[in-house]
Amino acid sequence: MADHIAARLHAPAPKRILALDGGGTRGIITLAFLERIEATLQKRLGRGDDFVLADYFDMIGGTSVGSMLAAQLAQGKRVAEVRSRFETAAPRIFGKPRWYERPRFGIFRPRFEAGALTREIKDAVKEETMAGDGLKTGIAIVMKRMDTGSVWPISNNPAARYWKERPIPNSNRVRRGNKDYKLWELIRSSTAAPHYFMHHAVQIFDGLDDGLGEGKFIDGAVSPHNSPALKLFMMAAIKGYNLGGGELTKDGGGKAWDLGGDNLLLVSVGTGLYSSRTRTSGSAAWDAMQSLQGMIADGTDLGLILLQWLGHSGRPWVLDREVRSLAQDVLHVDGREVGPLLGFQRYDMRLDKDDLNIDRCADVDDVEMALLRDMVEPGNIRRLYELASASAVKQVTSDDFPAAFDQVWHPATRIGEPA
């Protein structure tokens, strides 16, 4: 069980990571880019329609809606199938219940009932566990534990420190292993956006009654990792995450993936980028919520700036008015130039008329642009898909996937094979 995942994750470089942002119904933007990526890889590698993203990427990770998409892709589904399910599920998930028509409930209770969300997640990924044979490649789901404040990136790496259950000494308690978590309960946790959905309780320790063995989880977006690209790079580069399958010890140990522009490719896909402007109000709750949303954007910006600085990007984004795209910055250590630690490619669509990226602005007026930013409006899906598909044609090219990464994983031989 999970032997094929261990063999793939622990094999030598090159390695490829796909990171998918959170963003509610704006996940359709991600799907438009993924369709273009899938088609581009099929053509570049000379493969047919049966070649899917799980065949190319060794790890697919996501936060919030990105986790729901990532899980289905890791199961070997084609992007068109995932998109069809998304378009059907979104109106059910974000339907307004009758009690929400009374405004006071928007303060004291989540905006949407979580039952529909849970049903749609279960319908998409079934009862698959993290150790299930239905997963074709590596997966990582980013969520936040509300009761401890810690970020939880859980992967299906069989060499991870918490992969197996761990008895607690001198007690009847047992900590569940990552292998035993079901995909749906992790996705439900990662999509539990405060204000919109109730937090999700996950059983962490067996042997405790009255809910004492549970952890309370909320959306991974309420952390620096709504865009999980930086966290996934850290998982690849830090020995303690042990994606290379080394020997773990009490003081650390483990083995990381090899770094370098020809060893690691990280592709990050967003859900709509825009400059946020808001006004303060007389409501402390409103100001707090707006501040939180700003912090989510800050985390995304920080991750992208770091990755563009540490890696090589064919078309780097201008993310800061002062430092621009970092295209001219080269990392130096002890006065010596250090080559890129990874190849990095970011795809996204701007949802404003930002003057830093005039050529990437969608051809819509400001009023419609503002409406399209709503992340819980299913009525926007068709228009967003149309705009994002056009943007993907301009952004995604075959050159974004260097020849060094053409050697894709083959489960029969358990080694990379030339395309």
Overview of the structural elements:
By secondary structure, this protein is of the alpha/beta class. The chain has 12 helices and 17 strands. A hairpin with a 2-residue loop joins strand 13 and strand 14. Helix 2 runs parallel beside helix 12, helix 7 crosses helix 8 and helix 9 packs across helix 10 (284-310). The longest helix has 27 residues, at 284-310.
Q: Report the order of strands and helices.
A: HEHHEHHHHEEEEHEEEHEEEHEEEHHEE
- Span from first to last CA? 27 Å
Helix coverage percent of residues?
25-40%
What characteristic shape results from the CA principal axes? globular
Low-pLDDT stretches: none
Radius of gyration: 21 Å
Sheet/helix structural class = alpha/beta
Separate helix tally: 12
Q: Major beta sheet, specifics? A: 8 strands, mixed
In total, the number of strands is 17
Mean pLDDT: 89
**Percentage of residues in DSSP E strands:** 15-25%
